[in-house]
Amino acid sequence: MRVGTLLGIAVGLMACAESTAPVAPLRVLDQPPALSAAAGASTHITQPFNSSLLISCANGGEGETVALSGEVEIVTHSTTDANGGVHLSMHVRPSSVTGVGATSGLTYRGTGGGLVSQFDAADGFPAVYTMINNFRVIGQGPGNNVLMHMTIHVTMNASGDQTAQVDLSSQGCK
After folding, report:
1. Same domain, 70 and 114
2. Measured between alpha carbons, how far is 99 from 6 in angstroms, rounded to an integer?
3. Are residues 83 and 22 part of one domain?
4. Which residues sit opposite 141 in a β-bridge?
5. Can you tell me the distance from the alpha carbon of 41 to that of 76, in angstroms, rounded to the nearest whole number?
6. Whether residues 41 and 112 fall in one domain
7. What pLDDT is stored for residue 143 in this prediction?
8. CA pair distance 54, 111, nearest whole angstrom
9. First-residue to last-residue Cα distance in the chain
10. Res 3: pLDDT
11. Where are the alpha helices (H) located in the chain, listed in sequence order?
12. How far apart are CA 9 and CA 87, in angstroms?
């Protein structure tokens, strides 16, 4: 079902809930969207996750290392457009990621997620890559939480020249 159809249904239902006036029937277009996909594939995999992380604000500001383990779910979807360009999207999120502080023995949980979007024309250019990742480690008690954020974006024009680049990252305690 197309996104436009779903949006139309949602708007129609909201209108019905807020008004007693009759609602015009929805029209579904018989034409494919202008950017229809010629071919597509999706995957959903789960991988083990193991990583140690120094949380500098934990343990009363003394910091401590937390050995995290669990799983990471990765959902990908790719399509090829009518011109042969490949569109890829990926969603990554931790699942059941937990750890124990090496010094305090407190329990920590990993949460958050990341999104990747990529486009490559049939001959390689133009190309666009964007990745946004937010990973949080939440500990027991005050001051034991850390947030890591990363944004990367690169755009290449049809000649293969880089025309945009963003590379931002931050980490902070809460």
Report:
1. yes
2. 40
3. no
4. none
5. 8
6. yes
7. 84
8. 16
9. 42
10. 31
11. 3-18
12. 27
Distance CA 95, CA 99 (A): 12
Rounded Cα distance between 21 and 121, Å, is: 48
Gap between the Cα atoms of 152 and 3, Å rounded? 27
DSSP designation for 33: P
Q: Taking the chain (174 residues) in consecutive chunks of 10 residues, what is each chunk's mean pLDDT? A: 32 34 41 55 95 90 94 96 95 96 95 96 95 95 91 96 96 88
> Do both 136 and 72 map to the same domain?
yes
pLDDT at res. 7? 30
pLDDT of 49 reads 95
Residue 14 tokens read as 């909201």
- And the tokens for 146? 């850390």
Report the alpha-carbon distance of residue 41 to residue 106 in Å, rounded: 42
d(CA 134, CA 44): 20
Indicate whether 21 and 41 sit together in one domain.
no
What is the domain count for the chain? 2
Close Cβ partners of 89 (under 8 Å, ≥ 6 residues apart): 76, 77, 78, 115, 116, 117, 118
Same structural domain, 70 and 27: no
Q: Rounded to two decimals, what is the model's pTM?
A: 0.70
Is the Cβ–Cβ distance between 171 and 142 less than 8 Å?
no
